[in-house]
Specification:
alpha/beta, three-stranded parallel beta sheet, 7 strands, two-stranded parallel ribbon, single chain
């Protein structure tokens, strides 16, 4: 659920378990692994900002090592049962659920239509916001169209809840249809990027464009494109981001 302190030991133990079908006391050469053990990974940040001048390795870096070792030793790609945490769509769906619950607790009855998110890493925080925008756009379309393109309105699932499945997502990133979430109401996700963490502003002529041969810092199982990493606005810091949100919503303190 987070990067371990002793990577060598953690990597060895996890790979041992995966290669022996959870039976590390047995020789992996004689254990028949029919189906890989479930693997759930949380947080895909390759780096994070700490007290050092350069960003530190995050849990995403640990996953890169785990995937490489597993591939090298078995010849197979490591398969994840679930990827949670940013930039996974289910994490932002949960964030909307929590915001809705808090809004209701405060006595507000109107559904949340716009969700602002503040982050300091384009490939994780901002990409996650934009991926969630794509998710709710597809979800809205699927609520009104069936497989034959016919208009079906806001049809609910068999359990009476609104559908949350998205067939375009891989299983490790999908939102379960039986998840106990509040109704999905957000229509617009606004990604605000702050300059106080991993992200450092670059000169305008050095902006990332589609096709640029820049290192990919996002996780293997997420799409990589410059458009996903583009925020709605770059803010100086969190205070600047909050001021922008209040101004956008015509809120006077």
């Amino acid at each position: 659920m987070g990067e371990p302190k002793r990577w060598e030991s953690a990597l060895q133990i996890i790979v041992d378990l995966l290669r022996t079908d959870g039976q590390p006391r047995k020789d992996n050469e004689i254990v028949s692994v029919v189906k890989q053990l479930p693997v759930i990974a949380c947080n895909m940040d390759l780096q994070f900002k700490d007290r050092a001048l350069s960003p530190r390795f995050g849990h995403g870096a640990f996953l890169v090592c785990l995937e490489a070792l597993y591939k090298k030793l078995t010849g197979d790609d490591l398969q994840y049962t679930s990827l949670v945490g940013k930039p996974s769509e289910i994490t932002f769906r949960f964030a909307e659920h929590v915001l809705t619950k808090e809004s209701q607790r405060m006595g507000h009855t109107d559904p949340i239509k716009t969700m602002y998110l503040v982050g300091d890493t384009p490939e994780v925080d901002i990409a996650g916001c934009n991926l969630y925008q794509r998710y709710i756009d597809r979800l809205r379309q699927s609520r009104h169209r069936d497989g034959n393109g016919n208009d079906i309105g806001n049809r609910s699932a068999s359990n009476g809840k609104m559908r949350m499945e998205d067939g375009t997502l891989p299983g490790c990133r999908s939102v379960p249809d039986d998840a106990e979430f509040s109704a999905q109401t957000v229509e617009r996700v606004v990604a605000l990027l702050v300059c106080t963490g991993v992200y450092l502003p670059r000169p305008e002529q050095d902006r990332e464009e589609e096709g640029d041969l820049r290192p990919v810092h996002g996780h293997r199982d997420f799409p990589s494109c410059a458009q996903l990493n583009e925020p709605a606005r770059v803010c100086r810091d969190v205070e600047d981001a909050v001021e922008y949100i209040l101004e956008s919503e015509n809120f006077e303190c």
